[in-house]
Amino acid sequence: MIKSELVQKLADENPNLFHRDIERIVSIVFQEISDGLARGDRVELRGFGAFSVKHRPSRVGRNPRSGEAVHIEEKWAPFFKAGKELRDRLNGAGRFSQADSQPQPGPGE
Fold first, then answer.
1. Positive or negative, the Cα torsion across 74, 76, 77, 79?
2. Average pLDDT over all residues of the chain
3. Is residue 76 a contact partner of residue 39, using CB atoms and an 8 Å limit?
4. Name one GO biological process term (predicted).
5. How many Å is the maximal CA-CA distance in the chain?
6. Residue 22's CB: how many other CB atoms inside 10 A?
7. What is the pLDDT of residues 43-77, one digit of tens each?
8. Within the chain, where are the H helices?
9. Contact status, residue 74 vs residue 57, Cβ threshold 8 Å
10. Would the pLDDT of 35 be above 80?
């Protein structure tokens, strides 16, 4: 699901709200999560999960094509840990099976 699909789903479920207001609410929520992470805060959405920032120290890597050593700068990376309710929902009853997620052969294959 992309942001516009989320906004449309919320608009369909809340016909009493203006579409532009829903767009603004979704943008504000995402902006606040981003701002919190930029400050180094942990952002927790109960039942969904927690966003945090992890430090990746500088290191020496290898160019896979040439094998040459390459210096990789330190960086901060966003990290998401799913909450218990989300994990239970993904692994619980009614979840699609592995067979459902496999590509099905088309006609004539």
1. positive
2. 89
3. no
4. regulation of translation
5. 60
6. 19
7. 999 999 999 999 999 999 999 999 999 999 999 99
8. 3-13, 19-38, 84-91, 98-101
9. yes
10. yes
Cα separation, 63 vs 25, whole angstroms:
43
Q: In angstroms, what CA-CA distances link 34 with 19, 44, 53?
A: 23, 12, 11
| Beta strand 59-62 pairing with 49-56 | unpaired
* Distance (Å) of CA 51 to CA 3, 38, 76, 88, 108: 18, 11, 13, 18, 46
Among 21, 60, 39, 51, residue whose Cα is nearest residue 11: 21
Residue 12: the pLDDT is 96
pTM of the model: 0.70
Tokens of 9: 């789903």
